[in-house]
Amino acid sequence: MILFCLDTSGPVAGVAILRDGAVCYEAAVSSGLTHSQSILPMTEEAYRRAGLSPEETDYFAVTVGPGSFTGVRIGVSTVKGLAHALKKPCIAVDALEAMAAGVQPFSGVICPLQDARAGQVYAAAFEGKTLRRLLPDQPIRLSEHLAWAGSLGQPLLFLGDGMTANREAIQKALGDRAQLAPAHLSYLRPAAAAYLAWSKREEAVDCLALSPLYLRPPQAERQKNLREKGHE
Asked: In order of start, what are the domains of the chain with their CATH numbers?
């Protein structure tokens, strides 16, 4: 059984292929190129290197968010197109949960952070050994999230581009209780997203039912709403 997984939710684009639950290909690219430039060549390379064709795929999976609005749209649209053309089911993967899965196990709480800009982060929290969710995905001010995390009284592991952008603030607020993931572990690993998708195969849906996970409206929509309120 073959599962193909795509991630474009953050600054690193990634693809992974599982064969019967084992990783047979994984690649991640942080080149400064837009995901729209990178992801189709990466997909073609993944199948070629794995010695497979898209037609052999049983499931298509993708991280649906939270994350970059543009990035998420690119990934979801790509997978929907592939799945529709080949009439295969799709699996939605939560980006923050996949990020946490990439550093499991950890003796404490895993706190993945995506940079949400506008003074906020997309945050969640997971028990480090079981990946049991402790906090739902949410857009939140960093200071509020750190206050909550600090109240747990457990070791904390932060990762993601939200951690990278706020490294000093996290250390100042939490001191030695906060561990910051090193660079090679701080991004979403595509094989971790594929692993989660494999475990959720019973939740597969038709490509028409696959949709992005947006925790707040896109910036253009927010600006439009502000302009409309200004004219009331």
From this structure: 2-95+189-226 (3.30.420.40), 103-185 (3.30.420.40)
